[in-house]
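Problem statement: downstream parser choked on a complex file, so we are re-checking the raw output for the zinc ion run. The parser issue turned out to be on our end (a line-ending mismatch), but while we're here, posting the original submission so the record is complete.
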Amino acid sequence: MKLIRKSILIFLIAGPFFFNSCDSGINLFSKSDDVQLGKDLDAEIRNNPKEYPIFKGDPSVKRYINERIFQHILASSKIESKGTYNYQLEIIDQDVLNAFALPGGYIYVYTGLLNYLDSEAALAGVLGHEIAHAEERHATERMTSYYGVSILLSLVLGENPSQIAEIGANLFVGLGFLANSRSDENQSDERSFEYMKDTRYYPGGVKFFFERMRDDGLVSSKSDKVATFLSTHPDPIDRIANTNNRLQSAGLPVKDYKSEGEGIYKSEYLSNIKNKLPKK
Ligand SMILES: [Zn+2]
């Protein structure tokens, strides 16, 4: 395990930059490995309330997000693994501006992000993005390129398959495991944009969060609140431009996070989500 721990350290320090140029697209894990890994890591999260306190406030908040937004996105025919993956949503009660996905469809969103957003379209864009990370299997793809094909093959084919889960659990420390590359981010934004076309939501909502961060001066901030987000989701400014290009190519209006009207759903967001969260 010493080698693995040393690797984690490098992983955490190098973060997303290390992976920019080595998206191989090779994935030695099977979809059922993704499900098992996600299940194990989800259990770790639930057993670690200090680091990941599950939201215990008004249960209607999670129910609303799940039924009205999450399941609505999952109804898109473009989400191909919904029969295989355990798609589920959880809220973590921390003042952190972030959301993340584990392999196999386990999606988490922080109350800090829910408090920061102000429309269903913005939240739907984020959830679509996280669903795309699970669908495209970015985490196990990254683990494949990180550990190398030969090491993983010996684990996959070897006598100790539980070691795969152990690697995943170790990588998960400090969320280093979730540091996404630029190309993974771009692909997930693009997929989210496509999923949104099948929903009631404005497809450009995926960028609303970044526009507000930009206007609030948070993109280059070193505050704890955004540090994890920026280390796991690089280049928010480029992502705004990429989404605007997608909107233009699709002949859709380029709206921003201040926009109201069709497909945005601000008052619904306020009354069913934001106003039901404890005030900070
Ligand atoms: Zn991402």
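For whoever reads this later: The radius of gyration is 18 Å.
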